[in-house]
TrEMBL record, chains A, B:
It comes from the Bacteria. Signal peptide: none annotated. PANTHER family: HTH-TYPE TRANSCRIPTIONAL REGULATOR YJDC (PTHR47506:SF1), TRANSCRIPTIONAL REGULATORY PROTEIN (PTHR47506). It comes from Amycolatopsis endophytica. Residues 18-78 form the HTH tetR-type domain. This is AcrR family transcriptional regulator. Gene3D superfamilies: Tetracycline Repressor, domain 2 (1.10.357.10). Pfam families: TetR_C_13, TetR_N. Keywords: DNA-binding, Transcription, Transcription regulation. GO terms for molecular function: DNA binding. Residues 41-60 bind DNA.
Length: 217, 217
């Protein structure tokens, strides 16, 4: 994703120009996350980022260009977070539980939902030409889980009968659906239940480590 | 839900008035489902339903009143569909598979997503005062699965160790999240994987019927 975004930032920008663009983008992402795409207008954004209308127009001439940049910004953040050491490439059930625990304890989960999923849901039916970018981001996200599950198989931690692609779709769907239900209910329980049950399902494929195997007792 | 909606239809409406209101509502639901809330305007709705601006204003004086009525209309339809004989109160794994199979084969799934979930996602961050109505609808929906799973337990079809509320949240979250991912990818696979894996998980709690139990062989 980094390479893609870099490519989209006009190469002629000075370092000051890049900093201004980044500041606008950060405020746009924050406004869109808390208020939604439709309620975010240029005036709010200009005030929040401390830029003029012509500056805003220079970096993001259309709402589509702004929304597209925010999608990339949020996608990079969510993918970088999932790739962080904290989750150890999702090579174990414990790393999946660590991941679920983070979002269950995260107060924004049931207030504003997923930074990327809530934005996707809000605009998927609009005329904004952003579907391919969203699809690419979710595909990469799903692949992080799939790759982790495949490694768990190679390491003998889960059975060869598990279908990593199917389980990865279960994990990401439970996350996105649980986030929506938690937001609507203003209660984290739907997300907590969905994530714990999805991980319980991965666990049904767990292979006992040799030390715990019945034949060693 | 029926009782609630009836109560909201002004009692003084004549049968002709009720028919006009119902026609507007049906077209509003259709427009909102295909184009989204924000892209649906009064002029399109007037043309689609064949009513005047003053008629529209008479039945739905504000966009909030219209969106609220559409939420109730979609919630009634989705709940009635889930309560239909086809799914036999979700008292068996087969009924859950029948349900998943319907949505996996339903072409609107990956085009417009869930009639209620896509609407909820689009407006949950707006100022429209509709959250309680949405929460009520999703709660009833989740309870249909929970009640079915509880009956499966009483009938000895699934183990007492299963947590019906948690599994119900998994099923509804996998459905909502899978619908979003399928829409974004324009491919049914994420929904299919998520639903099949969620039902596979319910199946891990299945108790063998007496005829199939090992001791009877």
């Amino acid at each position: 994703m980094e390479a893609t975004t870099e490519a989209r930032v006009p190469q002629k920008l000075t370092s000051k120009g890049r900093a201004t663009r980044a500041r606008i983008l950060e405020h746009a992402a924050e406004l869109i996350y808390t208020k939604g795409v439709h309620a975010t207008n240029n005036e709010q954004l200009r005030r929040a980022a401390g830029v003029s209308g012509s500056q805003l127009n220079h970096y993001f001439p259309t709402k589509e260009s702004l929304v597209l940049a925010v999608i990339e910004w949020q996608a990079e953040r969510v993918l970088a977070f999932h790739r962080s050491e904290r989750f150890a490439h999702f090579e174990s059930l414990d790393s999946l539980r660590e991941w679920a625990g983070f979002y269950i304890a995260y107060e924004h989960s049931y207030r504003e939902g997923c930074t990327l999923g809530s934005l996707a849901s809000e605009i998927i039916k609009t005329d904004l030409d952003v579907r391919a970018d969203l699809a690419n981001a979710f595909e990469q996200w799903k692949d992080l889980f799939r790759d982790g599950l495949e490694r768990m198989q190679r390491l003998g931690r889960i059975s060869a009968e598990a279908d990593p692609a199917r389980l990865a779709h279960l994990l990401l769907s439970a996350f996105q659906g649980g986030m929506l239900l938690a937001q609507v209910a203003r209660d984290i329980t739907p997300l907590e239940d969905a994530l714990r049950a999805a991980i319980d399902h991965v666990q049904t494929f767990a292979v006992l480590p040799a030390a715990d195997a019945p034949e060693d007792r």
